[in-house]
Amino acid sequence: MTTIAPEPALSVRQVLTLDRVLAGEPEVVAGASHLDRLVRWVHVAEAADVGVMLSGGEMVLTTGVLLAGDTEAQAEYIRSLHRAEAAAVVLGLGRAFPSPPDVMRRAAERCGLPMVVLHRPFPFAELTEEVQSRLVRRKFAAVSLSEAVRTALTGLITAGAPLQHLLDEVAQHAGCPVVVTNLAHRVLATAGERSAVDDVLRDWERIARQAGGNEGDGWVRAELGGRGERWGRIVLCGYRGDTATGRLLADRAAEALVLHRMLGGSAHSWEEESAQSLLTDLISGIVPARQLLPRARAAGLPVNRRTFVPLVVRDGDPAGLDRVLRMVGLPGLVAELAEGATAVLLSLARDQDAEALTAHFATRLRSESGAGNTVVAAADARTAWEDVPAGLREAQHVADAVAQSAAGLDLPVVVRLRDVHLRGLVRLLRDDPYVQAFAERELDGLLCGDRHAEQDLLPVLRTYLASGRNKSRTAQLHHVSRPALYRRLEAIETRLGVDLDDFEQAASVHIALLAHDAQQG
Amino acid sequence: MSRVIRAAVFQTAWTGDKESMIQVHEQAARDAAAQGAQVLCFQELFYGPYFCQVQDKAFYEYAEQIPEGPVVRRFQALAKELGLVLVLPMYEEEQPGVLYNTAAVIDADGSYLGKYRKHHIPQVPGFWEKFYFRPGNVGWPVFDTAVGRIGVYICYDRHFPEGWRALGLAGAEIVFNPSATSRGLSRYLWQLEQPAAAVANEYFIGAINRVGVEDLGDNDFYGTSYFVDPEAQFVGEVASDKETELVVRDLDMAKLREVRDRWQFFRDRRPEAYGPLTAP
């Protein structure tokens, strides 16, 4: 924790163990089973009708000087304290009562009011000073913690920090996992020690739906909302400090999150950010897929006995994709991976036809978005969650391969690895050093740093090969005369040392060029 | 292997005209069928705006004969083509001037099974329904469809436990509650009453609410359609509060039996003591 938490509130039992109080030789003579009551304030009062002056939680100190000799008044005195919800009564023996008065003791026992007698004369002022100063320190610490947290969070918001940074800060103060959900209990963000967070998420559905929110077990919830509408909640999961401090932290965090959302700190909704971080982690492979399963489930993706279809959509905005998914009733996560490429992970029931539904989705996407050229790149459906990352990467490869060749291929509505042929293979192998070396070697004459070669000759070569070595088409596309094109092709052949009329040599250069282009994507 | 019904509900916004609204719902039926849904229920007065925000007799023309009218005929053909049970909540004209808020139920082979007419008709600001509808008078039918026993309880009906109970006693396994309800008015009830009715009657409920603000008034229809099981658990997620959404869920009928074996509410009810409830 970065901030000192406030001292816990003092209970009657704790007050009785203070050194100054021990000096008065306290003895609990009634209500011993209620000593854990919290003392809000200490009040010295000799009035017989003290009950009317209390507002609850007070420890009342008295010598009982106005009660001596009147047993009815003594009993009523105790009853009035009980009605006023006093925490305890402390009677200094000596002045009015030499020994604990039986009537008061019995009345206190019946009411369950802790009654303490002090056997040695004792200046009450010392006790009030001691307890009061502790209580005030505690309040001050609470205010100070509240201020520290608020200042830190406000600083992050004004610096434009993302939601995750705010949550990390809250988790640091809380020392326990922190979870933000929408009203459907979908987990939008988490913070805290990874393994503890995973433990919480593993059983999230059950935990989240437990009604009410019992703060006694360290689960502290605060609602997120503004302008008359609630839209989520933040939960401290298993906060180990005292309840009041947990409440304070949750409330400060909730205020900050509401502010962050209202200021529109990000172009993406929290739902989008949550899906994005999950899918990005899946694709990167840094975190094993198995460990991401609780997050996926908590993010609302059905994962039990499902078939997963990894897709990457070119030129489809995430919000639009999400809208179409809802419209056709398919459960899935949507997240933008890079400019112009959005991943969609569909979760289907095992008995559903993944290929048919993917095609259905892609067709509906085209008709709904009005963009006839939207390309949905798909990997084969996976029934094992562990295979999903490879599937997503495959879909990404296909989408990349398509992006570079969209003009040249007559593509189906859903494009798979088999549809991108050689281009797909080269794309998959682009990280292989032999392939890279091959491309460099084959194209060395054009990639030697000569601007003329790279800017003029390489595009001509690309078009010439892509068009099936069609010279008139190439000339037309590059707006040059045929003699000019011949001169450029001759220059290319000279620089590369190849004969492009020879099929094998041309194919070799073509593959090298595909590999070179794959490096750029 | 227990019986699982793949059921669907569809929520959407008013498109501005009846024909395009019908087309949106035809497409939704196709989308549902593509996923293998066996039964689909639309929202209340599905092909129109929620015209009860105003009192204008021009909207009487939205009413159609059930089952003789063109909308029912059109969706009978679609139900047959897709092999899909359809519940069509719509404005019914029995004869000129005799109008009901009704739901027609079409079986998976396209045959017309019957209708339910909404019993409880509200008359509060934004919901001037008494202007448009006679109270329902065809009892509490439960339809024995190709996929299971299905009941319908329309919108404002849901505030009255008696009808839920009648459908339960008649053997309903799924009750659809097509609605049009506004954020400011009923949001606090929406996830309370139907789950409670599902628990009390130990069946599944599919609750549907339209989305968006229509140009006839300020009602903010908040969607959030869902299925809830006999233990009051939502089946999957609740739908969006703003977007068009098809909700397709697998409802495991083993759950219904399990809960009824645990709680014998139907055995332990005391109808002979409920006389005062039916006193006029």
From TrEMBL, chain A:
InterPro entries: CdaR-like_regulators (IPR051448), PucR_C-HTH_dom (IPR025736), PucR_C-HTH_sf (IPR042070), PucR_dom (IPR012914). It comes from the Bacteria. Residues 457-515 form the PucR C-terminal helix-turn-helix domain. Residues 15-134 form the Purine catabolism PurC-like domain. This is PucR family transcriptional regulator. It comes from Streptomyces spongiae. The lineage of its organism: Bacteria, Bacillati, Actinomycetota, Actinomycetes, Kitasatosporales.
TrEMBL record, chain B:
PROSITE patterns: CN_HYDROLASE. Keywords: Acyltransferase, Hydrolase, Transferase. It comes from the Bacteria. GO terms for molecular function: acyltransferase activity; hydrolase activity, acting on carbon-nitrogen (but not peptide) bonds, in linear amides. This is Acyltransferase. The keyword Transferase applies. Signal peptide: none annotated. InterPro entries: Aliph_Amidase/BUP, C-N_Hydrolase, C-N_Hydrolase_sf. It comes from Streptomyces spongiae. Residues 4-253 form the CN hydrolase domain.
